[in-house]
Amino acid sequence: MSQFLKHAVDLAKMVEGQTGVNPPVGAIVVKEGRIVGLGAHLQRGDKHAEVQALEMAQEKAKDATIYVSLEPCSHYGTTPPCVEKIIEYGISKVVYAVKDTTLMSDSDDILNEAGIEVEFSYNEEAAQLCNDFFKAKKNGKPEVTVKVSCSLDGKQANDNGQSQWITNRSVKQDVFNLRHKHDAVLTGRETLIADDPQYTTRIENGKNPVKVILTKTGDIDFDLKIFSDMTTPILIYTENKALTSTLPQVKIIYMENSNIANILEDLYLRGVGKLLVEAGPTITSTFIETKEFNKLIIYYAPKVIGGSGKYQFYSTDNVFELSEVQNFEIVNSRMLENNLKLELRKK
Question: What angle, 0 to 180 degrees and rounded to 10, lies between the N-to-C axes of helices 3-14 and 124-139?
Fold first, then answer.
């Protein structure tokens, strides 16, 4: 792969988690072996990566090559089609790493008809950034990562509800980075009562995610720490019409049927493209059983807790035949001091 295309992919990786329902994209304009323009899609509704790179290059873009992590768009959304800007600036060649399966028309044909050479150079890293976006756009639901911190026997707490801290400080820091890369973090009322979490990033210049709380009953204590941050929006989904709040950052969303699918569809319409689930066994099990997730991340501490399994991270009323159980592919694993992080995808 060209080093310039790799740079474009690296730019896309840098803005992962801050583009909402849009994909993270990076672009590099190269003229006579020199980078003359670069750009990344910084947030939803902002200029696309190609436009930023072209505007930086200005007249140097004429007869230059543009390298893009994702096939340039050819439709009108919140911004005009990128293919039009590429033609306008006189680019001679476009190289991109991933085909955009959501495009309404073929960008290659449009660019070829304008006399621009197009090269598709597949890159696996870029594809991993985009594949979940394609699914999310098709289904009208966010990309969902379910995160679990547990013991070797799968407990998020002992039978008395003690859960702080099963995993170590390195795991906590890694979770802060996870939150930074997601638009919103979702939890339930029981987790708020048990742990009183804040769901912030606590990293330098980190982006705090929107906080999403699920409570069918609407039994909420507004004195909890999560409500002390007045700068980050909090969405509360409930089936209780009587639930109200005077806090300016809190929006209460009443749903007659607040199931996971309905909530995800509503979050996507509100601009949440990447959602992190950090909850207790009930909500975690619901996401896994309904298969409403893209990625499962498990942080294992080298401990066994035992007990009845009251806080087992995955528990169902159904007993499945082994031939029917969900299977996963381990896509990444690494040690965080003495704890193990596993990243898994459904097979």
Answer: 50
